Amino acid sequence: MKKSVLGAALMAAVTINSVGTAALAADYKQNPYTLTYQDAITENFEGKVNIHPVTYKLHDLEIAANVYTPAGYNPGNTYPAVVVAHPNGGVKEQVAGLYAQKLAENGYITITADAAYQGASGGTPRNIDKPANRIEDIRGMADYLTQYQGVNANRLGLLGICGGGGYSLKAAQTDKRFIAVATLSMFDSGLVRRNGYVDSQVSTIQERLKAASDARAQEAAGGEIIYAADAKLTDEQIAKLPFELYREGFIYYGKTHVHPNSTFRYTMSSLLDLMSFDAASNMDLINQPLLMMAGSKADSLYMTEKAYNLATNAKDKELFLLDGATHIQTYWKTKYVNEAIRKLEHFFGKNLD
User: Nearest 10 degrees: CA dihedral of 245, 319, 37, 21?
Assistant: First the structure.
């Protein structure tokens, strides 16, 4: 998908049914940190939760991140910390920033960063979306955050949202610096790129792999970069999309929480890596406490359930359903965000404190 300006007719229909008060989200143009979520920080004050834009190097690429510090932060003290990984197509200023800020309000130092080749982070061609990169992004956030003043490196948690949730599961399988792992609306990027959403494209796997191979060949020959999910859709086409995640995703990313660095497009050649990836493989390697949260009405729930059931060695694992929530509603709707944060506060409080 690509961001689209949605018409009044579509917005009226979808807002009534599913978006509600999402219009209360912050306008990135009016926020000095270009944050898009409701009640986002607009200015740092002593004694309050503060935001600190930072950059750091990861394999010679400059990564753009935001660190959130809790109220009364004193670098001479020690705090538990949480890495927050953003969704596919998302950036640090959207839902990942919202959850990072909310966790900071509960006493954690948190970080969320734009993925390499995406957002405000470096790397060309733009919008490469390879699982190995996204997993390394999460490790890189851990590298940076555990060196941040006041962070207790032995009290490090991980929260992955949507596609960031799938990549967080893979990172936690081998990186035992993360002593507690949580996901929200987990999306298995490899499973969906391979089989299609809800297995809707199984019959075209080989055709799409051939297209990805041809795109790689064109890149190697110095030709134009080919992008997937880069088409513009009309309001009518958006309304007719077969899956609620995609319909509501267009509203969230294209209207209510739009950010200029956020785009659903990715290089076609990335499919060579994506289509052989499976976030739910090797789940038995996770031996940390595991919390997986999802909306009870999310059409993506099947991915969370699959990974959860395979996490046979996770300690104190829990599948927590946000009653009545769809996938995208867990990103912004106050009721569900607050419920998820309360659950995260209990989970991280038990395992990081």
Answer: 60
Q: Can you tell me whether residue 79 is helix, strand or coil?
A: strand
What is the token pair recorded at 268?
Answer: 């076609």
Residue with tokens 């390394």: 136
Angstrom CA distances, 164 to 24, 84, 97, 227, 351, stand at 25, 8, 13, 21, 21
pLDDT in tens, 319-341: 999 999 999 999 999 999 999 99
Strands 151-161, 178-184: pairing kind: parallel
Angle between helices 131-145 and 163-174 (to 10 degrees): 70
Question: What is 8-352's CATH superfamily?
Answer: Alpha/Beta hydrolase fold, catalytic domain (3.40.50.1820)
| DSSP H/E element including 210 | helix 205-220
For residue 221, what are the contacts with CB-CB under 8 A and spacing of at least 6? none
Tokens 């020959």: give the residue.
221
Q: How confident is the model at residue 16 (pLDDT cuts 50, 70, 90)?
A: very low
Nearest-angstrom CA–CA distance, 79 and 100? 14
Hey, what are 138's tokens?
């999460």
Residue 15 token pair: 């807002």
pLDDT mean over 20-26: 57
Rounded CA separation 198/208 (Å): 17
Query: Average pLDDT for residues 264-291, to the nearest whole number?
Result: 98
pTM for this entry = 0.93
Contact (Cβ atoms closer than 8 angstroms) between residue 292 and residue 183? yes
Can you say whether residue 24 is alpha, beta or left, with left for phi > 0 and alpha for psi between -120 and 50 degrees? alpha
Residue entry with tokens 């992955």:
160
pLDDT at residue 289 is higher than 90 = yes
Region of 234 on the Ramachandran plot (φ > 0 left; ψ -120 to 50 alpha; else beta): beta
- Compute the distance between CA of residue 186 and CA of residue 236 in angstroms, rounded to an integer: 28
pLDDT at residue 24, rounded to an integer? 58
* Predicted pLDDT at 321: 98
CA–CA gap between residue 346 and residue 58 (Å, rounded) = 32
**Amino acid identity, position 150:** G
